[in-house]
Automatic annotation (TrEMBL):
It comes from Prasinoderma singulare. This is Xaa-Pro aminopeptidase P. Residues 376-592 form the Peptidase M24 domain. Belongs to the peptidase M24B family. Residues 605-671 form the Peptidase M24 C-terminal domain. One of its GO terms (cellular component) is cytoplasm.
Length: 692
């Protein structure tokens, strides 16, 4: 699915305990809290202290304040105005959820639309103070905002307490307390000690002596642990500190079972209270250990702790050097050794350079899946594909029988199919089941009170996934419901999306190529028809971890220059969306493999994609006349592989397998390439795009 999701609903989100529909919290009360804090504005990000894309209810402050439930966006409230900035994935949703009498929607990336920092500079005057909670902003984003405001004469204030929490009060949900579980080495592929060795090797290269692990999936990966604190993401609220001779996990003690305790002890990992990480980081740095704090994921609060430790160490070193200089002057000989050699002084680091701020090595190590992890991902995708076959066979029959179905009931049915599978833990995100016009809302989520009924003749978009012991899945299929035929326009749009999907799937490219350099291959066919989509084409995926991970992505956003490398897993998911009509997306997960090329220019390996997802594509949505022979061959070959891989697995399930097998066989038949097949009219629904 696209690289951000939402729980989209017109109703209050019960988990937020006081979020009003639409419009958010009492802004008058929040503004009173700002005055008490001595600031003229407050910036409210989406993130929690770990810079998570998905958070628990206790950290959903931006959602509580604005009423907007998308996972991406930042809000700002001044003493008389309020604004929310979000990107193109959420323009429609935000316009429906915000109370526009109180909130201004800033459509990020659109011409002449200010960023949240620029908006604040427009609204405020020199001498004003903008407050932030330093635990919720990355060190990098806080510093960028500080510079932007400072240029306008505005001060950035790091607050000791969050005014939103003051207003939220007793209605704020409690922090989650789910217990940790061990992620067995037979799924992880490496033990904790092996992973620590790899990390310490990377630290040694950078001359770093203590590493902060801040993101929740980093902590889960390094310690081979999984949790249940964030819906759909098998992680727990925790930090890690890694040093030359120690490894520490900071987590609430109630989450540590006897099994987890023994697992950590066997690897030499100490367990400390969650709230002590900043103090221990400061202490380590104060003792002279050079810290590594990823500025993009470590909070401004954690960075401040590291810098305070560095200042403390520098001050103590000055005192020590002063004493030694005094001893030398008094003839104590302290500056020389026993042979009269001058005593070597420890080099003093400037505080600003004392903290290494580059990307955490765990983020990169985690993205390169080992052979065991890749085997688990392949296996769980096949089980997942079989569940989807059972589901689509049931759906097709239910629609044909005229059963009353809605977006919620079909989502529930799909989850039942997955629950019957070996190793299933939970869904990997809230299922996006968008019928008709709801499919055009990129991050739609159905709610029982407002969901749409499915009916024959609709285009239905289904984006779903599962978390398993051995892997994580994420797959989107778009189908036309009923026995009728889709319009030429719908078929054309689907086929253009399919052409983009095939173009990316078959691409061969040099190792280290950043995702923005290959994104256009997935859009080329749409662009030639004057069409596009406003989300990224691909995101990284964890192995039995978060469904979205970095550092890689495939997107037109050029600022992510992370290269794509062998062992990574990405999604391939171009789409097309017509507001008020339908949405189309085709998504497979792929692993990055070394391609067998006749040459390797410059000695650099070339890469290709290996398909992980095997679920049939609906042939009636494909306009064969728009496909080249190679593209049509790709479709037939893919469908044949789907049938070969899934047919042996159809033995059980909620709905029985005879119907599922019959559906699979019919759905994977070769394309009909007879002349005239695939499009009733060359011009209906708009001009046909030029053929590739």
């Amino acid at each position: 699915a696209p690289s951000s999701r939402t729980a989209f609903t017109h109703l209050a989100m019960g988990a937020l305990g006081g979020c009003a529909p639409p419009g958010g919290c009492d802004l008058a009360a929040l503004r009173a809290a700002l005055r008490s804090a001595g600031v003229t504005a407050l910036v409210i990000p989406s993130e929690d202290p770990h810079q998570s894309e998905y958070s628990c209810g206790a950290h959903a402050r931006r959602e509580y304040v604005t009423g907007f439930t998308g996972t991406a966006g930042v809000a700002a409230v001044t003493l008389d105005k309020a604004a929310l900035s979000t990107d193109g994935r959420y323009f429609l949703q935000a316009s429906m959820q915000l109370d526009t009498s109180q909130w201004q929607l800033l459509r990020f990336g659109e011409p002449n639309v200010p960023t949240i920092g620029e908006w604040l500079c427009e609204q405020l005057s020199p001498g004003d103070r903008v407050g932030i909670d330093p635990e919720l902003h990355s060190a990098e984003s806080a510093e960028n905002l500080r510079k932007e405001l400072e240029a306008a004469g505005i001060e950035l204030a790091l607050l000791d307490s969050n005014p939103v929490d003051e207003v939220w009060g007793a209605k704020r949900p409690p922090m989650p307390d789910a217990q940790l579980r061990v992620h067995a080495e037979r799924f992880a592929g490496l033990g904790v000690a092996q992973k620590l060795d790899k990390v310490r090797s990377e630290m040694a290269k950078e001359k770093a002596e203590v590493l902060l692990l801040s993101t929740l999936d980093e902590v889960a990966w390094i310690f081979n642990l999984r949790g249940d604190d964030v819906p759909h993401n098998p992680v727990a609220y925790a930090y890690g500190l890694i040093g030359k001779g120690f490894a520490r996990l900071f987590v609430d003690a109630g989450k540590v079972t006897e099994e987890v305790s023994a697992h950590l002890a066997a690897a030499g990992v100490e367990v400390h209270p969650y709230g002590e990480c900043a103090a221990q980081l400061k202490m380590c740095v104060g003792e002279g250990q050079r810290p590594w704090v990823d500025a993009a994921t470590g909070s401004a609060g954690m960075m401040a702790a590291a810098e305070q430790g560095a200042k403390q160490q520098s001050a103590e070193q000055e005192v020590t050097e002063g004493r030694e200089a005094g001893a030398d002057a008094s003839g104590g000989g302290g500056a020389c050794g026993t042979e009269g050699e001058p005593r070597a002084k420890k080099p003093r680091r400037a505080v600003g350079s004392a903290v290494l701020t580059k990307r955490s090595p765990v983020i990169t190590l985690k993205s390169h899946k080992n052979d065991v992890e890749l085997a688990g991902m392949r296996a769980c995708h096949l089980r997942d594909g079989a569940a989807l076959c059972r589901f689509f066979a049931w759906l097709e029959g239910a629609v044909a029988r005229g059963e009353e179905l809605d977006e919620c009931s079909v989502s529930d049915r799909l989850e039942q199919e997955r629950q019957a599978l070996d190793g299933f833990i939970t869904t990997s995100f809230d299922t996006i089941a968008g019928d008709g016009p709801n499919g055009a809302i990129v991050h739609y989520r159905a709610h029982k009170a407002t969901c749409r009924k499915l009916k024959a003749g609709d285009v239905f978009l289904l984006d779903s996934g599962g978390q398993y012991e051995d892997g994580t899945t994420d797959v989107t299929r778009t189908v036309f419901l009923g026995d009728g035929e889709p319009s030429d326009h719908v078929r054309r749009c689907f086929t253009l999306v399919l052409k983009g999907h095939i173009a990316l799937d078959t691409l061969v490219f040099p190792e280290g190529t950043p995702g923005f350099a290959i994104d256009a291959f997935a859009r080329h066919a749409l662009w030639r028809a004057g069409l596009n989509y406003l989300h990224g084409t691909g995101h990284g995926v964890g192995a039995a971890l978060n469904v979205h991970e970095g550092p890689q992505s495939i997107s037109p956003r050029w600022n992510n220059k992370s290269g794509i490398e062998a062992g990574m897993i990405c999604s391939n998911e171009p789409g097309y969306y017509e507001e008020g009509a339908f949405g189309i997306r085709i998504e497979n997960l792929v692993s990055v493999q070394v391609a067998k090329t006749p040459c390797q220019f410059g000695g650099k390996p070339y890469l290709c994609f290996e398909k992980l997802t095997f679920v049939p594509l609906q042939a009636k949505l494909i306009d064969v006349t728009l496909l080249t022979k190679d593209e049509a061959d790709w479709v037939d070959a893919y469908q044949a592989r789907v049938k070969a891989k899934l047919e042996p697995l159809l033995g059980g399930g909620v709905g029985g397998d005879s119907a599922a097998k019959a559906w699979l066989v019919a759905s994977t038949a070769p394309l009909d390439r007879s002349p005239g097949v695939g499009s009733r009219s060359a011009t209906a629904g708009g001009p046909a795009p030029p053929k590739a």
